[in-house]
Design brief:
The protein is α+β, with helices and mostly antiparallel strands. The protein is about 25% helix and about 15% strand. It has 17 helices and 27 strands. The strands form 13 sheets. The protein has a 3-stranded antiparallel β-sheet with strand order 23-24-25, with no helix packed on it. Strand 2 (about 60) and strand 3 form a beta hairpin.
């Protein structure tokens, strides 16, 4: 090494040693002096620090060259300038006088002198379980904006919330507030508090729900849960896909029962097209009703559930709400036709003669009673009628299934009666005003003389 290099190194050592061992210069203020100059360089500086007012918080100890003590203990030091925080619920660091858990008292790179970049990051230092394992996060949580819902110091509401119950949610979700105000039917949890169904921080499920699908609804509606569980026939709309939300709005609706639309519209949203099931094909009702102008009264009224009453699950085929014979023949009783007799009078099938119980009569002979009201092998409604819609009058079908054959009905009406040329018997006529004699050996009936 050359002489010049050694001299240079020696000079550096001497110079630095002299600076390290020599007295510090305390002649300036704290941020100008050798120790605390970095405070003023940060983005956010506490006002006393920036205004050279360190003595607002610190007092030099007597008999020392550079020793200081705080002017007060804990939060009392802060509340000399910052109003004391009060409320029924006080955040524990505030109650314990430990403001510096969240704030740096001198300077910070972050707003509000926070020790982390966001309020959420500060909160997570203690509340680290809020986001753990949650696939979906509430917007304020995801953005680190806990103070959007909570007061970090003190509040009149539990959980340091800014407002009580759904009033807090409405601070952001104002369209929902208006929708609930305008609705005819409002879900009771939506009236009382959103957190019965939603987690305010995060969830494993979309929309921050506490469960998914029908499981969420069944937490309260256990009667329906039991009915579906025990049902021989389960409505797939309840058990599959969107679950209850396929038919019901979870918050509010202009219609009864929180329906998402008019009853007929909801039913046709699935049953408008054919549905293949393990037991056969359900018809597509959009086409069926369009091609068959005579509709069963409840269909014209848009009231599918008057017959399909057990819409969640049923012990009966097709979710029917009462007994309706599933076969071509059955012994007649009121109980066997309980569903039909909710609307139709049973006398139309029990009185052998009548002049007003039914229009299906030959003179006063009750032809409904003749066909249906038998102890043995009575013909059921499905032997002649389509229960939803038909091309002709009286919901009379063009043909009905009988094993592998379809029996033609062959009805032709008149003003006072008609002719039936079915696959059950030879053509018979009937007339309500003047009874017809249908001779057994004649291919055509002749008027009674």
């Amino acid at each position: 090494m050359t002489r010049q290099v050694w001299v240079g190194v020696l000079g550096f050592v001497i110079a630095t040693g002299a600076r390290a061992d020599g007295p510090k210069d305390y002649s300036g203020n704290c941020t100008d002096a050798a120790c605390h100059g970095n405070f003023a360089k940060l983005a956010v500086v506490h006002d006393p620090v920036g205004d050279e007012g360190c003595d607002l918080c610190h007092t030099a100890k007597e008999g020392t060259q550079h020793k200081f003590e705080l002017n007060a203990k804990g939060a009392e030091l802060c509340t000399d300038c910052h109003d004391e925080f009060s409320g029924k619920v006080v955040h524990s660091p505030v109650a314990e006088g430990d403001c510096t858990t969240c704030h740096d008292p001198h300077a910070s790179a972050f707003p509000k002198l926070l020790r982390e970049a966001t309020v959420g990051a500060v909160c997570a230092e203690c509340h680290d379980d809020v986001m753990d394992g949650q696939q979906f996060l509430h917007g304020p949580v995801a953005a680190g904006g806990c103070s959007g819902c909570h007061n970090p110091h003190a509040s009149e509401h539990k959980g340091l919330l800014l407002a009580e119950g759904r009033d807090l949610c409405f601070k952001c979700h104002q369209p929902m507030k208006q929708r609930l105000a305008d609705a005819k039917d409002v879900h009771s949890p939506a009236q009382e508090g959103c957190t019965d169904c939603h987690d305010a921080h995060g969830s494993a499920y979309r929309m921050l729900t506490r469960e998914t699908g029908s499981a969420l609804c069944f937490d309260c509606h256990d009667d329906i849960s039991d009915a579906v569980e025990d049902a021989m026939v389960k409505h797939s709309a309840v058990t599959d896909g969107k679950g209850c939300a396929a038919c019901h709005d979870a918050h509010a609706s202009p219609d009864a029962h929180l329906l998402v639309a008019k009853e007929e519209t909801i039913c046709l949203s699935c049953h408008g097209e054919e549905i293949k099931t393990a037991k056969g094909v359900l018809p597509g009702f959009t086409k069926l009703l369009a091609e068959n102008p005579t509709h069963h009264g409840p269909i014209d009224d848009g009231d599918c559930t008057i017959c399909h009453l057990d819409v969640h699950g049923s012990a009966r085929v097709a979710l029917l709400g009462g007994a309706y014979p599933a076969t071509m023949y059955t012994s007649f009783s009121d109980d066997a036709y309980a569903l039909c007799f909710e609307c139709h009078e049973s006398e139309a099938f029990t009185e052998a003669t009548t002049d007003d119980a039914t229009e299906f009569r030959n003179g006063e002979q009750n032809l409904h009673a003749l066909h249906v009201g038998k102890d043995i092998k009575g013909r059921t409604c499905r032997a002649c009628h389509d229960v939803h819609a038909s091309k002709g009058p009286h919901l009379l079908a063009e043909s009905v299934p009988f094993g592998e054959w379809r029996i033609p009905i062959g009805f032709k009406g008149t003003e006072t009666g008609g002719t039936c040329a079915s696959g059950c018997h030879r053509p018979y006529r009937y007339d309500r005003d003047k009874a017809v004699v249908n001779l057994p050996k004649s291919p055509a009936a002749t008027p009674e003389t």
